[in-house]
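Box 3.1 A note on notation
Throughout this textbook, protein chains are presented in two layers. The first layer is the amino acid sequence; the second is a C-alpha cell string describing backbone geometry. Keep the layers aligned when reading.
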Amino acid sequence: MGKLRRWLPRIIVGSLLGCGLAAAGAWWALHRSLPTYAGNAALEGLAAAVTIERDALGVVTVDASNRLDAIRALGFVHAQERYFEMDLTRRSAAGELSELFGAAAIEIDRKHRVHRFRARAQQVVATATPQERVSIEAYVAGVNAGLAALAARQFPYLLLRQTPRPWAAEDCVLVVYAMFLDLNDQSNAHELARADLLARAPPALARLLDASGTHWDAALAGDVIADPPLPTAAEIDLRALPRERFGLGAGVGGDIGIGSNNFAVGGALTGNGAALVANDMHLGLRVPNIWFRARLRFANADDGAKVDISGVTLPGVPGIVVGSNGHVAWAFTNSYGDWLDWVQVQWSDPARTRYRTPDGDAQVSEHREAILVAGAASEEMLVRETIWGPIVHEDSDQGALALAWTAHRPQAVNLALNGLETANSVDEAIAIAHRAGTPPQNFVVGDRAGNLAWTIIGAIPARGSADPRVPSDWSRAGAGWSGWLPAEQYPLVRNPPDHRLWSANARVASGAMQTLIGNGGYALGARAMQIRDGLRARDRLQPADMLAIQLDDRSLFLQPWWQLLRDTLATKPDDAGLRELDRLTAVWDPRALPEAVAYRLVRGFRLAASAQVLDGLAGPLRDAAHADYRLPPLQQSEGIVWRLAQERPPHLLAPIHDSWDALLLSAAREVVDGLAAQPGGLAARTWGERNTTRIRHPLSRAVPGLGWLLDSTPRALAGDSAMPRVQGPAFGASQRLAVSPGHEEEGYFHMPGGQSGHPLSPYYLGGHRDWEEGTPTPFLPGPAQHTLVLSPAP
C-alpha cells in the first residue's frame, strides 16, 4: 500500500503529461493542415500572378489575368478548404465511400454503384469540348497543387488513417452526378408507387388519389387544375367494407414536401431599373456548407473586357453555380419534373441475356464492379444494363425493369453553365441554360436592363408514345425517348405582364408545357402561392423586401386547420386533455416561431386528421393478399383531405369512425396522447422543441465524441415546410441571396455552415449566426483580411 501511495502521484502526473502531449500533438497536426491564407506561393501552370483575398467571413476574391488562371487558383482554394468534403461527394456518386469508412457505407455504395457513374463520368470527359477539357484540366491541376501544399493531411484523413487520393478530371463530373442523386429520386419510387396504386384502386378512387393539383396552386403559366370529382356511393362505399381494413395507418401523414425558392421582379418594379433576383436553395445542412462563396475577376479571352462574377461555387466543379456577373443574375430551384422512366424489359431468350428493342434483339451488357472496403474484403457487384439504362428490378410486379434517367446519358452533363460568366442579357442566359448539362432545374434570370425569364435548365428528354407515368414497353418503335427536346420547344416565360416570377418546387405550368416537364413528385403550391402573393403585395421591391419574403414564417396554409380544430373542440368535451388543447389553441398566431405552442398543436392536428382520412381511402386497396397496404406519399393529398373534411360524404368515411366529427375528435385526441405525457405537458410543447437545428460535420456522424468540436450549436429556429422560410433540424436554406445585376453592392447573402472545413480556421462556421438570425450580410466580399499571391512556378 505504501508503494502505491508513493507511485500514485507519479502515475497521475505521467498520465496527465501523456494526455497533454497527445493533445499537443493532435493540435500540432491539426494546425499544420490549415490552408495557406497569406503570403506568397508558387503554382505551376499559371500565366501570371493571381491574388486571392479573404474577407472577414472567408469569402474569396480571385483576381487573375485570364479565366484559366482564375479557375486554377479556385481549385487550389477549394482543395485547401474543402478537399475532404469534395472527396465525400465524388465517392458518394461513384459508390466508393466504403473505401474510406469500411462496411458501414456498403449499402450506400451498392445503391449508387448500379449507376456506374465513374465510368459515365470518364465518358463525359472523353467527349467534352476542347474548351471544357482545358477548363477541367486547369481546375484539377489547381486542386492537386492545393492539396500538396498543405503541410499535413487534413484532419479527417488522420482520424480515418487514410491518405487522400488525388483529384481526377472525371471527379468534377462525379460532383455533378452527386447533385443528380440529391435532386432526383434515383429509385424512381414515385412512378412505381403510382403504377401500383392505379393498378389496385377502382377507377373513381384512382382519379381522386392521382390528383395533380389543388386550390393552393400558383403556377407561372396555365390554369388552375380542377379538382377531380369525388367518387359516388355507387362507386366507392367505405361503410360497406370490413372494419379490419381500416385503422392501419396511411403510410403518409399528409406532411408537405420541402424544397427551394427562387423569384424575381423586373426593372419596372425596382428603383434602379435592373431586375432583382432572389434565391434560397433548400438542401440538407452540414458543416461546412455545401456551397463555397467566391468572386472571380479576370479578362475575357474574346474581347479583353473585365469579367467580375460573384456567387456560390460547388467545390469539385470549376465555376460559379448561382450568382451575378454585373449584367445578369440567375438562380435555381429543383423542378421535380419527371426525368426518370421505368422500361419493361421484354426478354427474347429464357436465360434473360437478350431483350427486344425497336431495332431488333440486343445483348444485355454486364459490368462487374469491385467495391473496396476499408478493413474488410472487397465485394464484387454485377450491373446488367440495357440500351435504356441499368436493370434495377429483375422480378417486380411489372416484370424486369430498366431505369431510364437523364443522368445516365453522357449528353446530359457538361460545363456549358460556365457560359453564364460572360452572358450579357436574359436572352443569352436562356440560350446557355438550354444547352447546359445539369440536373433539370427551374431557372430564373434577370438582367441589368430589367428583363427577366423563367425556363428549365438542363436536358429534357423527347418522349415518345409510351405513358411516362407508369412502367412501359419501349421495344415498340416510337415508344421511348428519342434524344433531347430542342431548345425552341423548352418551356419559357419571358417578361410577364406583372413583372414577377416565382418558383418553389410546385407545379409551374399546365397543359402542353407541363406535359414536357412531367410530375416527379412536385410540392404542394402553398409555399409558391405565399411567395407570389408577397411579391404582388408590393408595388416596388428592394433587396430588403425579398429578404422579408424569404424569412416569412407565417403558415397561412394552417389557418383553416386552426379554425377546423376550434370547431371540433367547440363542444367542450369532458376530457381534461382536450380541454387543455382547447385552451392552448384559443389564440392563433400563424407564425412558426420557436416559442409557439398553438402552432405545433394545430400542425399536429392536421397531420393526424390527414393520416386518418387517407387511411380510410386506402381501405378499398387492401385485401387478403395486401392486408397492410399503405398509400404512397401523395404530395397533393391536401386537396383531397380538405375537401373530405369540408364536404364530409358519409360513404367516404371509414367505418371505424361513427361520424366525421368523431374522426376529427380522434385526431385531436391523438395530438394530446402523443404530447401531453412529456415533461411539462401540452403547454411545454413549443415548436422550437421540435425545430431545433442539428447541423453536423460529416465526420462527427462517423466518429463519436467529435460533435462538440465540429458541429454547430443546436438552436431553435423559426420556420417550417409550408411557408417561404423552410426550416427543419437539418434541412433549410443552404444560402439566401438577392441581387440586381450591375448593383451587386446593394445585395445581401446568407450562408449556414461557413466557408472552411477546418475547425481551427478563423472562417469555420463564419456567417452561420447571421444565417440563423436572418441578419443581412453583403452580397459582395468585404475588405480583405488575408491576401495570398500565387505566382507562376519557375
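The first strand starts at residue 39 and ends at 43. The mean pLDDT is 93.
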